[in-house]
Amino acid sequence: MSTPLALPGEAAASGRAPVPKTLDVQAFIDSRPLGLYQWRIVLLCFLIVFLDGLDTAAMGFIAPALVQDWGIDRASLGPVMSAALIGMVFGALCSGPLADRFGRKGVLVGSALLFGLFSLASAYSDNVGELVVLRFLTGLGLGAAMPNATTLLSEYTPVRHKSLLVTSMFCGFNLGMAAGGFVSAWMIPAYGWHSLLLVGGVLPLLLALVLLFWLPESARYLVARGHDVGRVRRVLRPIGEEAAQARGFSIPEQRTEKAGGVFAVIFGGTFRVGTLLLWLTYFMGLVIVYLLTSWLPTLLRDSGASMERAAFVGALFQFGGVLSAVAVGWAMDRMNPHKVIGLFYLMAGLFTFAVGQSLGQTALLATLVLLAGMSVNGAQSAMPSLAARFYPTHGRATGVSWMLGIGRFGAILGAWIGATLLGLGWTFEDVLGALLLPAGIATAAILIKGLVSHADAT
Asked: What is this structure's pTM?
């Protein structure tokens, strides 16, 4: 552990190194062990993405009940499946620049309020058109939550644990989606499809109140935007008393920061190619994730499985990401992160193809769904961490949120392709076999990024 710093006047008496007049925020965080303050930030960000995942997955799990309750065909649910995803695109694309301009905390609190309120309203929908509008508005909040939780947490973690902690936090999204399956298997038969949306609305509203009082603003953001030194001291002091003694603060990238807005940062010379490859990788990963999330329960129902079993197997796909996220983050902190992520995308394609060949073999099917979920969700969980490390503070929220926002077009495409292919009469095996293509593209794109654009701003 690094030697604690002290004021120059105290150095002779204490034998400790003096506190510099300007304290490097990241170096200070790196020099300290993780404390309860930082673990609280991890927990709060985890809860944000957990509820994000719970609400995002809701439509996939209630779709069979909607078909039965409203007497509609599966193709009619295509707009409903895509509405929240379209909202998430706009939520992500708008929230990043807002967070880089006005702060991460305010955007996070607002996003929780937004998706909580409109999820509650969605529970009282009477028709497809109304549900489409409300799910779009819910998606605005959902899209803003995840990238800014990722950004805030990455700016409070030491470099040596950054990938592990951010991917562990991000697995809350997969756990939330899995919880949606497990909870829906019990709640929907007992209380109807409305109950899942009610739960997905009340919990974020309660969390927003907690965030308002317990979540700190990013110290690195405050320094980058030139906020009052006293405010920076207050948010860093719980990490170590040395922060209270510093006369000023800096962040490493201030030495190389160029004039221009956030888009000049993420499309700057050293970042342009990496930005485009991150977008392509995440886009293809979400094609896989959302086709399976949106349609796997329905495909299983069509193959003869009960509603409870279809929901359970669908939840295993999301739960797989929870099991693998920590391992992926640990490996990224110790090995080439691009190769680690590329390997997981490759395995995702192979296991997804195998799922399509195991219809009728319940135990094997469940195992392969779990492995496919571990692979693709593990890779997707690692991507925000990779992006957060790639971009500097003054463009980090925009870089992460735009990767997630552009990637959401892949989610929309995945949900739409599922509806289209099923409408054309494709079989279970055909639909899943087609996912080898996006898995291969994602693998190639992330490996190429590792070769041509591997800068790490930390």
From this structure: 0.78
